[in-house]
Design brief:
mainly alpha
């Protein structure tokens, strides 16, 4: 019975992730931000991030922290990490299935190398954990999984859309060359663009809305961007734990 319920919940969550990915893809496609395979990958990254944020917040909401009072602090952290990690299993399954599909798809349909798929898979796995960390911080602030997800969406929205702030900056600075790398490093989607060798800023909409394409620049390495995201995740975890400890006591 337990296994049956678990399979149903997993299947339902996977279906929701597919639907959410399709919605995000439709939005990106409407904005004409790239080719179908590029938009599918970006949509998957965004969807997985939001789901991991929601699932981690939902897990914290359901935990009875009074039970933690019987454990030592180190044990409390371990138990909490186990609960959150288990809640992220649907995200890990979804990403793994997606990576397998990319690997077995005919090269005429998906022109991605084996290493590109592996790198993207690793990027998304990292973002799952980062999303969960930011979701936990959102739950720490608001105490509800939906608000935690909205908080995560705002955080990533600010990071992804930060390059739009170059428009007003350009009015006061003659050359943005030294500023552009800062905004590229902050944008988590640039990691995927680097792996795909995909210049998203030369798509019609962003070419008109941002000044970046007017300058010579190189995309940061994907692992550097992931490194910044990991630091954000660590900061969120360090911030979250004292609040959890407070609830226990």
């Amino acid at each position: 019975m337990f296994l049956h319920v678990t399979v149903i919940k997993l299947t339902w969550t996977l279906m929701l992730q597919v639907f959410a990915t399709a919605v995000v893809y439709k939005f990106l496609s409407f904005a004409k931000l790239g080719q179908p395979i590029e938009l599918i990958l970006l949509s998957t990254v965004i969807t997985i991030f939001l789901f991991s944020s929601y699932l981690s917040g939902k897990t914290l909401t359901r935990i009875d922290f009074r039970e933690f009072s019987f454990f030592r602090p180190s044990t409390q952290r371990f138990v909490l990490a186990k609960h959150v990690f288990c809640s992220l299993i649907p995200c890990f399954v979804f990403v793994t299935i997606f990576a397998i599909i990319l690997l077995i798809a005919p090269r005429g349909v998906v022109s991605l190398s084996f290493m590109a798929v592996i790198k993207i898979h690793l990027i998304v796995l990292i973002y799952i954990l980062v999303g969960a960390s930011i979701g936990m911080l959102g739950w720490r602030i608001f105490g509800h999984e939906t608000l935690a997800t909205l908080f995560s969406l705002i955080v990533w929205g600010l990071l992804i859309g930060s390059f739009f702030s170059l428009v007003p900056i350009e009015r006061y600075v003659e050359n943005l060359t030294s500023y552009i790398p800062l905004f590229l490093h902050a944008n988590p989607l640039i990691a995927v663009c680097h792996v795909l060798e995909y210049d998203i800023f030369r798509t019609p909409m962003l070419y008109e809305l941002t000044p970046i394409s007017s300058y010579l620049f190189t995309y940061p390495k994907w692992y550097l961007i992931c490194g910044w995201q990991v630091l954000i995740g660590i900061f969120c975890l360090v911030t979250v734990y004292p609040r959890l400890n407070y609830r226990v006591t």
